Amino acid sequence: MKKREKVTIYDISKKLNISAATVSRALNDNPKISKKTKELVAKTAAEMNYKQNRLALALKKGRTNNVGIIVPYIDRSFFSSVIRGIEEELTPHGYHVIIAQSHEEVANEMEQINALLNTQIDGIFMSVSKTTQSADHIQKVLDEKVPLVFFDRKIEVKGVSSVVLDDFKGGFMATSHLIREGCKRIAHLSGDVNLEIYRNRYEGYKAALKEHKIPFNPSYVLQTSSKIESGAQAVEDLWQLEEKPDAIFAAGDYAALGAIQELKNRKINIPQEVSVVGFSNEPFTKYLESPMTSVDQTPHLMGKIAAQVFLEQVNESQNYSIEKKVVLDPELFVRDSSNRTTLNLQNAAI
Amino acid sequence: MKKREKVTIYDISKKLNISAATVSRALNDNPKISKKTKELVAKTAAEMNYKQNRLALALKKGRTNNVGIIVPYIDRSFFSSVIRGIEEELTPHGYHVIIAQSHEEVANEMEQINALLNTQIDGIFMSVSKTTQSADHIQKVLDEKVPLVFFDRKIEVKGVSSVVLDDFKGGFMATSHLIREGCKRIAHLSGDVNLEIYRNRYEGYKAALKEHKIPFNPSYVLQTSSKIESGAQAVEDLWQLEEKPDAIFAAGDYAALGAIQELKNRKINIPQEVSVVGFSNEPFTKYLESPMTSVDQTPHLMGKIAAQVFLEQVNESQNYSIEKKVVLDPELFVRDSSNRTTLNLQNAAI
DNA sequence: TTGTAAGCGTTATCAT
DNA sequence: ATGATAACGCTTACAA
């Protein structure tokens, strides 16, 4: 492949018989440069098809205007929406977004962090993997004084900002909704307890029961993975019980879908006999034959706010340890799978 | 924010009283460096928490090991899957992936291209926007001798490699399948004709009709957008006709879903009275009450192959104009929405 | 085997 | 208003 030849400010300076410094200043609209030279330089640069080499700029300035995003998988609806939010907020500020996947493995997470630090990114956005327990690898980021923002899945690290959903509230809303619909024996399909988000959804569930004076029954709580089969299995297990549940609040939409499928297998009426609520508001939930009620995590907004938090952090020049914790409100989309009473007109539209 | 201090090879060289060049060589495992020095340098580097500045390396070498990907929207299931494929193929080779969105606007596409070229990416992957007509902005990429690979949506540019689906075949397979299921009056909901992919699906549809000696009826072809309402509207229009269709092949899953919804409104039996086939195999299609038949575009594979094409291109050092056109085979997932005869066991599993 | 010095393309400091 | 020069952190001839 032929070496690609780049036009530099030196080429322009030679052609115009002026110094490279002048060209640089003219290009940067420095007030000390005469209008005439500026125009001349601009014109010549365009003619020669000059393009600024942002690499050299980055080396000089010590910042690349690149940020890294580390997520478990980029093709999950939730994560790709967050990424989109970040991209859209940051692009107008001249930043570029580098993405990396952890595949839910803390080892990959470490590698990706190192690789990103090597490329001199100006910041890192990250949603930790399921297997992340300690904060050792996170500490390296802080040591380098690279701004870090957690979103959705975080671990507690002093001095690190985060933007997360109020998962407690989400669990509380979902459960309260079921109670309002008349459900009394509400089961909970919880997620991986290693992740704070699932613990919080569970706590929200318990709090709602308590507030409505409904006794908490531990045998109604099963841990599931975010797989359809896992949700179906949970129903099988629950239906071994003497007292069957009359509602299921799943901490994830896939588990909820599996539950629905197994309930239908058993000819159980949804929502009349058993109501179901999921979590995440995955796109598929609203396209089901009887659409599923689910808690929306506002991922696009989460991305945008995470980006804003980063921008604030970068612009604060003095104190080097601002920590901002943003907690977003979840939104409950009530659909057929839990709607025993009236049709919620507000959310009936797609 | 405190200026972050970086450890350079000079810091190491001072501490060890050797030259920076030796440090550099030792770090790069240069055979001319003694084992002893290498070990010493490695140890000291680790102690001092040295991290290579890949920016300086990039400036020196003229390559960043970053590639850019431009897609209409990153949070569309198809695109995020392709991106995932590219990322997974390229990460082991030390590349990082920068993503950018065009929002289906050619103007944004141009801006993103320029921005990416400025950051000195080593290659660009791109799926053109709906509004892209000419190749002027593409030519700039070629002028800079930056490897370019189109995926899925391409425009014809001499010397540019591409990885696309055989959309003709996809349309042909879908239509032939419907014919085999006994359908005689097959309607087609086509997509934006500005995009080659939709024209090809349409051509595949026509070819299948022809092969089976089924007369082509232009009033059975309607242009739709990739919206649910658009598919529903199409059914309304089609059902004005004297001779109603007995099958619908939609060039997109959302239009197909809209069609299904409207057919159900009209109490029309699917698939017995009208069979429906979509295109893209969006995740939601298999979770529908009666899952939808759809043509899969193997996006993850498409990403991986696009990445491989790029790698080949980079490694070819001599001729600077290898053009590779890869065409992937679509895969038909037969599900309930078109399955009049037997259950296809092979694809029955989720 | 190791050291010296130039260079990648900018910008910033200090002169003029 | 403009020019000369150093510096960002690294690699790589060329010397030694």
TrEMBL record, chains A, B:
Gene Ontology molecular function: DNA-binding transcription factor activity; transcription cis-regulatory region binding
SUPFAM superfamilies: lambda repressor-like DNA-binding domains (SSF47413), Periplasmic binding protein-like I (SSF53822)
Top-rank taxon: Bacteria
Pfam families in alphabetical order: LacI, Peripla_BP_1
SMART domains, alphabetized: HTH_LACI
Protein name: Hexuronate utilization operon transcriptional repressor ExuR
Lineage, opening ranks: Bacteria, Pseudomonadati, Bacteroidota, Flavobacteriia, Flavobacteriales
